[in-house]
Amino acid sequence: MLRAVEACKEGMSVRQAVRLYKVPRSTVVDRVNGRVTHSAVSGPGQLLSKSDELSMVRYCQYMASHGHPLTKSQCFASGTSIRRERDPNTKPLSRTGGGTSASITMWT
What we know:
Elements: H1 2-9, H2 14-21, H3 25-32, H4 50-65, H5 72-86, E1 93-94, E2 102-103
Parallel strand pairs: 1-2
Helix pairs in contact: 1-2, 1-3, 4-5
């Protein structure tokens, strides 16, 4: 996406950039025209900070390398525990995303 936007700013047509980089035309146009910033992302906000997420990944890898891989339930519990350290009133993570719980998506 970034390459397509840069190419347009350097004189390439949007049509050429879209074909070359295989990205959506409307997104390139919005970014070239300044309607959407480079750092803008769609979707729900991140529930864990990047550093907390990295710590959790390292812990999961450590446990797996020592013969004790974590289950999904343990991952959710770890994520909730990390969030509760930051904010004791935080809602628990939920696999379904419904109700009042914060949601997180886990793919298998």
